[in-house]
Amino acid sequence: xxxxxxxxxxxxxxxxxxxHRQRHxxxxxxxxxxxxxxxxxxAAASPASGRASLxxxxxxxxxxxxxxxxxxxxxxxRESGVPWTSPFLQGLRLSAAFACLILLLPLGxxxxxxxxxxxxxxxxxxxxWLKRMRGRRWARMAEDLPEIADLVAVxxxxxxxxxxxxxxxxxxxxxxxxxxxxxxxxxRMRLGESAGEALQRLAAHPCPExxxxxxxxxxxxxxxxxxxxxxxxxxxxxxxxxxxxNRIRASRVSIYILFPLVFMILPSFLLLTVxxxxxxxxx
Length: 283
Description:
Elements: H1 2-21, H2 23-34, H3 41-44, H4 46-64, H5 70-80, H6 86-104, H7 111-157, H8 162-168, H9 176-190, H10 195-203, H11 208-223, H12 227-251, H13 253-282
Helix pairs in contact: 4-6, 5-7, 6-7, 7-8, 7-11, 7-12, 8-9, 9-10, 10-11, 11-12
């Protein structure tokens, strides 16, 4: 009974938040039904202002109770590409833990042993989501690099310098994160830095494929080896690694199919066959 009460409270809270979020849409529909009424700019900007107020509130909460590992949070936010600040992230974590505690209150005495692990899980949930976003961002960078390395190699074969080749290769970037990283290198080279100094940023990148690309170009630039030949070999290796990742991802599909088979189709089959036999024998 306590679990049912907790579930109903969670559903009621979700419905209340959804109702509060959709109030502007209901107001617009009502004004549209009443007739052509000119909406004021303040009313039109109220959803954005509400989100901004919520973000400011969470940021103030995070500034009031800062996290210990602030540098790690900065690095995680920078690598994930999510436009959050460290105070906002800390406020979001504290709010998630407090909301989880509120949802556990209807359980009564069962909430005492469940509250610490549940609140800890809710507190670390935004970090897990950011790490997942960081992994996706790195995977998309790895998908772009074979074509970029091929294009830079072809441009270097045609007589272009490394600076101009990397500048022209920005058009082949399929993801904004890859374009942003390469634009930083090209911009530093345009401002007067040498290719070796500008490539130090890519050579220390947390993404393994991007770091490999930067170190390969940097090594070729420092040793005087032909950049085009080395980049052509690197493109073949990166393409083979991408093909292997896609093969592994495709092989997991057969395993994922077992979950609906075991937990949905097989129980219903047993209920229709064995359950009918049991009912027949008991009656």
